[in-house]
């Protein structure tokens, strides 16, 4: 199935949605297929981890499958879907938080016992610009990360970004400026090599 | 015209179209004439493009039908209401214990009668306290117990 960008998703799913809500199983499957990749990317943005994003995307698909009938059409479909994904990511984060704390504690103890060996392949991957900048992106506070992703990565306008996040456009703009300032400062100051690598 | 220092500040918040130098903004005009600031703008653009490529290029490992199958194969969480009720019940129990403890130690219903040498002692209880003298197996040791007076 071709990659459906989030911006196009509303147009693609509109006819499928009506049919799926009327009980057309094929339309429902096609709709879920179109939403899956977008939901997964949003989940990656929220969780910062590919495996966690898979779990969140699965959960969202199940919720979507069950609650398609309750979508009233008052909000844009992508706005509704984004909220479902965001809630699922937050819930997932809460569930694994305690497990993560345990794992981190264990990892700290283990690293105190034996320092990690140098892995040349891992180091090469680490130096890749995409990984570097993605690492910096994940350091942004959640709100700034969301606004930056929607506005500067997905290319939504200020009004649509604010609508999707349920916030005032002025507030969204302020978050965007803070996110850009932080990310660009880190890029320029901490990783002067990123431009040369490309 | 703006200085390089001012341009560096603007670079941090500008839209990407401005960083490309295509706009007629103050920053755009500066970038058209300053190699150094243009290079900084190019670094930011390159890094953000790499970020966009990475994030938008992320793909789930499974197709939607597979993902749904895997999700339905996962064991459902059992007794979700009970899982919420247990911490609440524990918190209520703890609160109850704390309230009981704040009420003070239980008073003895019947005090043992002072006996032996204790009867010859003269001890005054401080205000608001009652007093009990208790003999022990050792005739040289008498326990003097001050306890809060019982409220009527």
Compose a concise summary of this entry.
The complex is a heterodimer of chains A (198) and B (152). Chain A has 198 residues and is mostly helical.
Q: How far do the termini of chain B sit from each other?
A: 88 Å
Strand content of chain A: under 5%
Order of helices and strands of chain A: HHHHHHHHHH
Instruction: Give the overall form of chain B.
Output: elongated
Strand arrangement, largest sheet of chain B?
A: 1-2
Could you tell me the number of beta strands of chain B?
Answer: 2
Coarse structural class of chain A: mainly alpha
Q: What would the average pLDDT of chain A be, to the nearest integer?
A: 81
Report the sheet with the most strands of chain B, covering strand number, pairing sense and barrel closure. Answer: 2 strands, antiparallel
Q: What fraction, in percent, of the residue positions of chain B are helical?
A: 40-55%
Question: Can you tag this structure with a few keywords?
Answer:
heterodimer; A: 198 residues; mainly alpha; 10 helices; 79% helix; B: 152 residues; two-stranded antiparallel ribbon; 6 helices
Describe this protein's structure.
Chain A is mostly helical. Chain A contains ten helices and no strands. Chain A has helices at residues 6-21, 25-47, 50-67, 77-113, 120-126, 129-138, 142-153, 158-165, 169-190, 194-197. The longest helix of chain A is centred in the middle third of the chain and has 37 residues, at 77-113. Chain A is globular and about 55 Å long. Among the domains of chain B are: 4-57; 64-102. Chain B has helices at 4-11, 16-19, 26-33, 35-56, 64-73, 80-102; strands at 129-135, 142-148. In chain B, β1 and β2 form a beta hairpin. In chain B, α3 (26-33) crosses α4 (35-56). The interface between A and B is large, with 46 and 34 residues.
